[in-house]
Structures are given as C-alpha cells and as structure tokens.
Specification:
This protein is an alpha/beta fold and 479 residues long. It folds into 3 domains: 32-174, Rossmann fold (3-Layer(aba) Sandwich); 180-280 and 463-468, no CATH class; 281-447, Rossmann fold (3-Layer(aba) Sandwich). It has 20 helices and 10 strands. The strands form 2 sheets. It has a 5-stranded parallel beta sheet, sandwiched between helices. The protein has a 5-stranded parallel beta sheet with strand order 7-8-9-6-10, with helices on both faces. α9 crosses α12 (234-242), α9 runs antiparallel to α14 and α10 (208-217) packs antiparallel against α13 (251-257). The longest helix has 20 residues, at 187-206. The N and C termini lie close together (6 Å). Residues 1-27, 68-75, 291-302 and 425-431 have low confidence and may be disordered.
Length: 479
C-alpha cells in the first residue's frame, strides 16, 4: 500500500457537519443555563438559587443570573432576551411573591417555553417553592410553563409547605444536569468530546433506550448511570467516559447498541472518533513537537525523530490521532510501499528516493512539479508524519535518510518503528543503530508492549465488524 493520508473517506466525512450541533446551534458543547427567578422578593427562591448556581458552575455549566450578569448602565430588556435565545436549558423558580406579582418572570417563562415547544431549547425546569400551589400559579398566567412537570417541595405529613426544605427542589433540579467534565484544560480534548457528544445526542433523540443500553454496556457505576439519565449534559458526560481510555474493551459492543439510532455514516464516524482512546495519553504526547507540548506560540523550529517500538504503521497513526485529539484536518501521515525497486543505487539511495516519493503525497505536491521550497511550505497548525518500519530497512540507512529529509523539511516528523525493540540509547542496546546520532532523536515512552498492540489491533477489527454492513472500514490498515 502506498502512503496513507488517514482514511480518505473518513477525512472527507469528518469535515461534514453532524446533523445535530447542540440545541443552541453552537459548534462547541458548552452548556449555558438561564435562570428566571424572583429571588429579590421571595426568600425561599433565594435559598434555592444560591444553592443551584454554584453547583451547576462546579459542573462546568455557564449560568446566567440577571442580578449577577447585568452591569450598571446595561439596557436590561435586550440583554435578557439575548440570553434567553442563547441558552441551552432554563430553570424557572416560582415562589409565593413571584406568583402574586409575576411581571417579568411570566414573560421570561413564556419566551423560554416558546423556544422549548419549537425544539430550540433542550429543557425548561419549573421549580415551585414556598407556600404556593400549581393552581395559584396557573391563575397568574403560568399555564404554558406548568404544562411541564414542576419540581415542588414535598412537606411531610405534619409539615406545612412553608416549613418544608426548599433545598429538596434544588437537589431535584440539579440532578437533571450531568457533570460536563470540561475542566481538562485541553481545548483539543474538549472539542473531541464535543464531537462524540453530538453523535450521542443524535442517538438519544432517536432512541433513548439504545442510548441507555450503550451506557450500561460500558459498565458504568450506578452513580454514573444516573448522570447518563439526566436531561442535560448526559451526552457530554458519556462522551468523556468513552474517551477516558478505561472502557476501550466494551466500546465496540456499546457502539453496536447504537445502530438502531444512528445512520451508517454516523456509525462509522463515531467509531473512528472513539477508537484512538485506547492509546496511552502520555506516550501520545511524544508525537507532538516539543514546543507544541510546552504550549509555546512560536513556530516549531525542529521536530524530533521518533523511535517507536511498535510493529505496525496503523499503531503510529493511532498515536498521532490520540496526540491531536483526533482533530479533523490536523495532520498528514504517510508510509512507504513494501520493498524497494531493484536498480544500481545503494540501499540508502533507494530508501531516500522512496521517502521523497511518499513526501510528494504527504505534502500534496502536484504531479510533475518539483519537491522543493517552491512547492512545499510549513503549514501552521498542521503536522506531517513519515513512518518508516525498521523491519523493512537497515536502521543505519534509515538514520542517514532521516537526517537528509529533515535538513530539507525541518518540520517533518519521522517515526521509525523498531518492531518491539525498546531502544535504550547509551545502555548498550544496538537495536536502533545510528538513529541516536541524529539531533533531537526521541524515544516514545512509555513503550507499548506487544500484548497491548495486539489487543488494540483486535479492538480495531471488532470495531470494523460493527460497521461492516456499510461496506467501508472505519480504520485503515497498512499492509
């Protein structure tokens, strides 16, 4: 097989917009919550509000509360309307004083319910606290809001409503918001989880049963399953769990359970998204240029040559995907044809010629044009990888060719597979030959074991079997 540029079908599909991009229409998966309330007049509402807001923010929700967000001099009417049309879900808190004089809260409730009814809002949660009944609230114009099941205080047999605990309402409302887990500090990981969550959103809308079955198959704890059942954020919560690397063995079975709720294209795309989660995150960081790992903003001056004790080129591709959080259009990776042409050139010369032929495809140089500085440029935010298998070539020749290529293309990342040999430069291991003489050579650590690479390959085969009816494999194999 010639140079591999990811999976070409997969690359073209990943750039297409999934049929669901979150209820607010934004591309990110941040969830914004609007809270309508009359806490200035209702002390019991204030208790609930003060309890809900910090708990939602601790779970990574953006919460809009008018008294906090409006600045002196703001025109409050347009600001509130803007927030009501930007939010992903809403909470409306009704207390006795609010119901007696509904004013703005009723208007907010009508706007929010209107969005909910046409599918522009994921959920509206009514909360009734204090000595007030749904009948009284309906009389004051909250009929539309109370067409939804309201969360109410539940006083005991001998306890009147005004003396029951308003925090019961807070607990029940917060339980409908799953922890988002977005505080990783890695924007790439957040975007990756967001892409997976959008497929899960689509599946949940079509078949909530399939969505829950898939979560159960992953072996989640009882507490985690409660988060998956939450009305808001459950898809992102499950997405982070699927990408955590601890549930890999069950991923194919879980994806298979989503078949009734996803089209074949979506099923293939979801499978390709979650597959690299098996890779060790720290080891994958070796595949990023040193300055990218450090977070520096300057252009990468020199990428290391990577020595990787893997057998298969597919494994290197998976490590790159994991390093880049599977971001679309973030890299190009190529390999060589098996075997070099027979001619009068030396093995090193033949290897370099084959590498430069592969680079034409990696750098996407038009046919007949030269491979030089006129046609090849470093592209900001895009990485180029050439994978050489040490089982096919003399490693001393690989060292010579790699040094030559990196002189011409300093940003090129050359990955040398050593077929299970764990290089120990300076420790007497002669497996990597002269690779250690090349400037900025790095070894991928921790090394992958043969058992782990074999298990990952079997996992890929199982995942491909899930979508075999589509006629297109999820992951490419290099043979």
């Amino acid at each position: 097989m010639g140079p591999l540029h990811h999976n070409r079908w997969y690359d073209s599909q990943r750039t297409r917009r999934v049929d669901t991009a979150g209820c607010s229409g934004r591309d990110d998966m941040n969830r914004r919550i609007f809270i309508s309330h009359g806490a200035g007049r209702d002390a019991c509402v204030r208790v609930v509000l003060d309890n809900i807001v910090p708990r939602l923010r601790a779970n990574d929700y953006e919460v809009f509360v008018d008294v906090e967000e409006l600045r002196v001099g703001d025109e409050w009417n347009p600001v509130l309307y803007d927030e009501m049309y930007r939010c992903d879900a809403a909470i409306v808190l009704l207390g006795p004083e609010t119901v007696a004089d509904p004013r703005w809260v009723r208007r907010e409730a009508d706007v929010l319910i209107g969005r909910f009814k046409v599918g522009g809002l994921a959920a509206v949660f009514p909360g009734i606290v204090g000595n007030v009944t749904t009948a009284e609230a309906r009389k004051q114009g909250f009929d539309a809001l109370l067409s939804l099941q309201a969360c109410k205080q539940a006083p005991g047999v001998d306890t009147p409503p005004e003396q029951s605990d308003p925090l019961q309402v807070a607990d029940r409302i917060v339980a409908e918001f799953s922890p988002l887990g977005a505080r990783s500090g890695d924007p790439g990981a957040c975007h990756w989880a967001g892409r997976v969550a959008r497929y899960l959103e689509s599946a949940r809308r079509r078949s909530d049963g399939s969505f829950l079955d898939a979560a159960r198959r992953l072996g989640l704890s009882k507490a985690e399953l409660m988060h998956v059942k939450a009305r808001i954020g459950a898809e992102l919560f499950l997405s982070y769990r699927m990408l955590s690397g601890t549930l890999c063995e069950e991923l194919p079975s879980a994806v298979d359970l989503l078949k009734p709720a996803l089209g074949l294209d979506q099923l293939r795309q979801l499978s390709a998204e979650v597959m690299p989660s098996w890779v060790d995150h720290e080891a994958a960081r070796s595949f990023l240029p040193a300055q990218a790992v450090a977070g520096a903003g300057d252009p990468v001056a020199c990428s290391p040559l990577l020595v990787f004790n893997a057998f298969d080129e597919w494994t290197a591709d998976q490590y790159v995907r994991r390093a880049l959080c599977n971001a679309p259009d973030a890299y190009s990776l190529g390999t060589l044809e098996r075997g070099l042409p027979e001619d009068d050139s030396s093995a090193a010369e033949a290897l370099e010629a084959a590498c430069r032929a592969a680079l034409r495809q990696i750098f996407r140089v038009p046919p007949r044009m030269p491979l030089d500085s006129r046609t090849v440029r470093e592209r900001a935010g895009f990485l180029n990888y050439l994978v050489l298998n040490g089982a096919d070539h003399d490693l001393d020749d690989v060292a010579v060719v790699a040094a030559s290529l990196r002189r011409d293309f300093h940003w090129l990342v050359v990955v040398v597979l050593t077929g299970g040999i764990e290089p120990g430069f300076g420790s007497g291991c002669d497996g990597p030959g002269r690779l250690h003489e090349i400037l900025d050579t790095a070894v991928v650590v921790p090394p992958i074991t043969m058992e782990a690479e074999s298990a990952a390959y079997q996992l890929m085969k199982r995942m491909n079997a899930v979508v075999q009816d589509s006629g297109t494999p999820v992951m490419s194999e290099v043979s």
